[in-house]
Amino acid sequence: MRKIGKIEVETMSEEHEVELVPDSHAASTAPTENTAATDAERSTEDAVPRTGQRSLLGWGRVAHVFARELCSENLEEISKQAVLSRGLGRSYGDASLPAPEFGPALSTRFADRILDFDSETGVLRAEAGLSLRDLLHSFLSSGFFVPVTPGTQFATLGGCVASDVHGKNHHRDGSFGEHLRSLKMRVADGRILVCSPDHEAELFYATLGGMGLTGHILEVELQMARVPSPWIWQKVKHFDNLESLFVALRSGSAKWPFSVAWIDGLTAPGREHGILMLGRWAEADEAPRKFPKPRKARTVPFDAPSWFLNGLTGRIHNRLHSWTHRNSVGIEHPETFFYPLDHVRDWNRLYGKRGFIQYQCILPHEEEGYAVLRFLDLLRKLGADPLLCVLKDFGAQGKGMLSFPKPGFTLCIDLPYRGDRTQNLVDQLNEFVLAEEGRIYLAKDLHTRAEHFFAMEPRFEAWNEVRRRWDPQASIRSALSVRLFGDDA
Amino acid sequence: MKVVLLGATKGMGRAVARKFAERGDSIFLLGRDQDELERSALDLENRGARQRIEYGFCDLLQPRSFEPGLAQAWETLDGVDAVVVTAGIFGAQEDLEVRDAHAARVLTADFTSTVLFCEVARKRLLEDGGGTLCVFSSVAGDRGRSKVVLYGAAKAGLSAYLEGLDHRYRRAGLRTVCVKPGFVRTAMTADLDAPPFACDPETIAPRVVRAIDRGTPVVYVPGIWRWVLLAIRMLPRFAMRRIDF
Questions:
Q1: Residue among A6, A23, A115 minimizing CB distance to B147
Q2: Is the minimum CB–CB distance between A6 and chain B shorter than 8 Å?
Q3: What are A68-89's pLDDT values in tens digits?
Q4: A24 interfaces chain B, CB cutoff of 8 Å
Q5: Does B181 contact A at CB distance below 8 Å?
Q6: Residue A388: pLDDT above 90?
Q7: How confident is the model at residue A21 (pLDDT cuts 50, 70, 90)?
Q8: Chain mean pLDDT for chain B
Q9: What are the residue boundaries of the structural domains of chain A, listed by start?
């Protein structure tokens, strides 16, 4: 009961000459030229509420930085002082955390206004903190969907740009950045400017997948996708053999706009199995008449014990998952199709206080054989229990200078965090990915070593040059840039 | 419905305004920051408002701005059905105790100024034969509490004012709606630890809009606070002191 003590608020102004006797006499004696000065003063104080330092966490709840988080509806104000912008904190590792003891982060999550929408062209301009959930709530009913969506709708537009996220349609539509028209940013020298493929193009392409390090993203202009109905037509198929699953995934991608595969990563060798999910937007005449009701999210009220998700419960879950996802073809709810995990609001707490990591890499296609199979073998050999294992084939590499996707299979696994063992595991996985000429996804990463990263990313130098041109002192700095990009701690 | 909102560029006011916009109600925004008002007006237009959304200047801490602001609203909308006040300032008790000027500001804004604004709105609504006046008070005003002495006192005064208004003018056609939110996650509460039953502005907005439609005199959001506060109000003083709530 004690905690209930801190109660409610709504906000408005502060810092003004207080008129304790607010009558017309007082008003007429108050010098009017005063207003301009106090205006400037108060706006800064308003925008920077006295936010104490607190532990900011990555989604995996392993990475944390003790720092202030500036919160305001007015991004232009708070971006003057912040060292990093963060949205809803869905990146798993340290990408959304400010460099330790360097300065405050800002949260974009209260800046969620839609500033322009053209229902003819589908071009939308909004503040960077607008979440995909909010966007879908507003636009799916009028026949528009985000062109690319990651596996959670609790991502902000700014975050989608910074990680240049990909979705189940990457093989066809590329990553998020392909559909961007322009960005409004505050760059390190304090200027606010708009960049696009035609104007300050270098900054624009460095910002796609630039992990928020090229400037604070304030507004995003985006081409929305028109959809024939708000429902998904989905095909689910089981495979007892992974090789045939891979073949089916690639051939399915040629025909279907959305494709993804789930693999049971906890089986004995030779008993692997997986599920292929293919989808497209349902045509108007196939779709149910009614609008898909937004799903009610359940919450996890407390942290599960850290042992809760382990090899055994994982196996039970995988068995249930296979059992509940039978071979089928038909209509599916868009939220169930795109965001199966959002159904449980803070599912990251299921991993307990110790948290978990997600590891995502890309393994280029080979003439013969599958690197993914060898990767799974390696996981087994290292004794890792990948509790979630998702596979997707990527299309062409986009224009973002540091964007993750390139042609190949991308594999994404969840692992409970086990301290040094996890570091060791990631090192070995990275060695493997490096040998396969693959790379890792920074939005998930927490344990990659700088030398591995540089070896995987020959593109880094070019990107870093652009970053340094806009921000010579690296005054926008994250925990990730300190760990991987050589920024001073 | 024709609605005027003071404080709708932020937090709970923003969520409530969006609900009105989605229904296609006519909206007029009052606030003190031109740029913020402009952006919020665009937002509401893009979220379903049927017509252009106009806005005007009004600052809770400048009572002389009340009449011109409301006059502009009345003129633009050609009469008003509901006035919604979500503006206000929060101050943590520890903070208010050491910063007198800040305490004066919170007390003035949350009580005196809000009441004076309501008086102007009340007169205008009654002149038109009635309407709804919806004001955001707080659960903090239901009982004197050690954690929110000053803020709670201002909100208690505000709640009492609204109840008095309800008794005096309901028959004349003025419906007052006193909204008492519990902990709502907005930019201004971001630095506080969220207590149980904390919720988002979007969650409470439909309930507030429904209360405005119906003219419910007092509405707790989320609803659970009604029962929590019922229990709290009945606690004898020695027990209240003991639990240090």
A1: A6
A2: yes
A3: 999 999 999 999 999 999 999 9
A4: yes
A5: yes
A6: no
A7: very low
A8: 94
A9: 114-227, 232-454
Place of tokens 């109840």: B163
B193 in A contact zone (CB under 8 Å): yes
Check if B151 is active-site: yes
C-alpha torsion sign, points A156, A158, A162, A167:
positive
Rounded Cα distance between A357 and A417, Å, is: 6
Selection from A87, A85, A77, A89 nearest residue A106 by Cα: A85
Q: Dump pLDDT digits (tens) for A133-161.
A: 999 988 999 999 999 999 999 999 999 99
| Whole-angstrom distance, CA of residue A229 vs CA of residue A129 | 27
Domain extent listing, chain B: 2-243
B48 band by pLDDT with thresholds 50, 70 and 90: confident
What are B210-241's pLDDT values in tens digits?
999 999 999 999 999 999 999 999 999 999 88
| Contact state of B186 with A11 under an 8 Å Cβ cutoff | yes
Q: Residue type for B81, please?
A: D
Q: What's the mean pLDDT when you consider all of chain A?
A: 88
- Confidence at residue A243, expressed as pLDDT on a 0 to 100 scale: 93
* pLDDT reading at A22 higher than 60: no
Q: What is the pLDDT of residue A19?
A: 37
Check if B91 contacts A (Cβ < 8 Å).
Answer: no
- Chain B residues in contact with A5 by the CB 8 A cut-off are 145-148, 195, 244-245
Across the interface, of A10, A27, A72, the residue whose CB is closest to B7 is A10
Question: What is the spatial distance between Cα B204 and Cα B181, in angstroms, rounded to a whole number?
Answer: 8
CB pairs under 8 A between A and B: 175
Contact B188 A49 (CB under 8 A): yes
Nearest chain A residue to B31, by CA? A12
User: Do the Cβ atoms of A449 and A427 come closer than 8 Å?
Assistant: yes
* Average pLDDT of the segment spanning A477-482: 97
Contacts of A16 in chain B (CB under 8 A): 59, 61-62, 105
Enter the ipTM: 0.93
Q: Which of B55, B151, B161, B220 is catalytic?
A: B151
Place of tokens 């960077």: A128
Query: For residue B128, what is the enclosing H or E element?
Result: none
Q: Which chain B residue's Cα is nearest to A4? A: B195
From chain B residues 124-163, the ones with a CB under 8 A of any chain A CB are 136, 138-140, 145-148
CATH architecture, domain defined by A232-454: 2-Layer Sandwich (3.30)
**A3 and B139 in contact by Cβ < 8 A?**
no
Q: State whether B139 and A8 contact (CB < 8 Å).
A: yes
- What is the least distance, in Å, from the CA of B171 to any CA of chain A? 30
Note whether A370 contacts B: Cβ–Cβ < 8 A: no
Q: Which CATH number fits domain B2-243: 3.30.70.2750, 3.10.20.740, 3.20.20.140, 3.40.50.720?
A: 3.40.50.720
Closest C-alpha among B6, B54, B134, B207 to residue A11: B6
Residue A195 pLDDT greater than 60, yes or no: yes
- The dihedrals phi and psi of A229, each to the nearest 5 degrees, come to -155, 165
Fold of the domain built from segment(s) A114-227: 3.30.465
* Contacts of B6 by beta carbon, 8 Å cutoff, 6+ apart: B13, B30, B31, B58, B60, B69, B83, B84, B85, B86, B87, B117
Q: What is the pLDDT of residue A319?
A: 83
